[in-house]
Amino acid sequence: MIRIGLVGLGKIAHDQHLPALAGDPRFSLVAAASHGRPTHGDLPVFHDIDDLLANGPALDAVALCTPPQVRRETALAALRAGKHVFLEKPPGVTVGEVHELAAVARDQGVTLFTSWHSRFAAGVPQAKAWLAKRRLRKLAIEWREDVRRWHPGQAWIWQAGGMGVFDPAINALSILTEIMPEEVFVTGAKLQVPENVQAPIAGHVDITTLSGVPVTADLDFLQTGPQTWDITAWTDDGVLKLSLGGAELTIDGQAIPVGENREYPGLYDRFATLIAEGRSEVDVRPLSLVADAFLVGDRERVEAFVE
Ligand code: NAP
Question: Which InterPro entries match (predicted)?
Fold first, then answer.
C-alpha cells in the first residue's frame, strides 16, 4: 500500500486525481496540502508541502497538482524528504529544473514520474502501432478550446511559466512525441500574446521530423462552440485521425474500437509500477518543444484578454 498525499487541491485534483486514487487499491490517500485548505470529507488538509511533511501523517509519495510555477520548490521538498513524486503536466516551467529534479530523485533513491495524461488516452497506443508500419507524409495538430470554459479564474495560466495556450497544447505535443516513429524538432513559431498578459493565447508551430516530414500545430484558446483536440496524420497507406484529445481514433474515416478512456487510472498504474520497480520515468520532450517555440517564435501583441 502506497500512502500518498495530494498537493494542490484544485480543478484537476478534484476532476481526476481523487477519483483515480479512490479506484486504485494500491494507493491510500492519507492527506492533502493546498493553499486555500479546501475540505474534502475527513481528509486532513495542510497549507503546503512543508506543513504537510512537518505536521501530516507518514507518507510514501506525493502527487503534485499545483500550478507549474511552484512545481520545482514543492517537488524538491518532497524528494529531499525521501518521497516518491508524481508531477502533473507540465513537469516544470523550465527544462533545466526537471533535470535537476531527476538528479535529486536519483540521489535520494526515489521515483520521479513526469506524467503526461494524454499519452494514456484510449486511441494513442493503436495510433502509435499503426504509424510505426507506415510512411508518414505530413501531420497536423489542431488544438482549439475555450479558456473561459476550461480554466475559469486560473490567473497562473497567463503569468510567466503558465504557458497560456500551450498549457493544453503540450498535451498534443506529449501525444506527438509518443506516437511518432522518429524525433521531432521545432523550426518556427508565431505566437499571439494579449497585451495585458505574459503568455500566448493562440499560435502556430512548425515542426519537422528527422527525415523532414512536416508537422504543424494550430493552437487557439478562444474557440467557443465545439472544441477541437485533433491530430491528423497522412501516410502512404491512409489517413489516421485522433480526436477528443486521443480518446477517439479513425482510419480513413472509419471508427476504430479503442476501449474506454482511462487516462488517470493509467497514470496511477504506471506510478505504482515505477515505485515497485524502483525506477523513475522522466521525459521532457513535450516541454522542450514548447521551450523551443517560445525561443524561436515571432510574437504579435493582440487585444487584451479579459475573463
Ligand atoms: P487550479 O484549479 O488552479 O488548482 C491548483 C491548486 O493548487 C489550487 O487549489 C491552489 O490553491 C493550489 N496551490 C497553488 N500553489 C500551491 C502551493 N505552493 N502549495 C499547495 N497548493 C498550492 O489548477 P488545475 O487546473 O488543477 O491545474 C493544476 C495543474 O494540473 C496544472 O499544471 C495543469 O496544467 C494541470 N492539469 C490541469 C487540467 C485541467 O483540466 N484543469 C488537466 C490536466 C492537467 P489556491 O487556489 O488556494 O492558491
Answer: Gfo/Idh/MocA-like_OxRdtase_N, Gfo/Idh/MocA_oxidrdct_glycsds, NAD(P)-bd_dom_sf
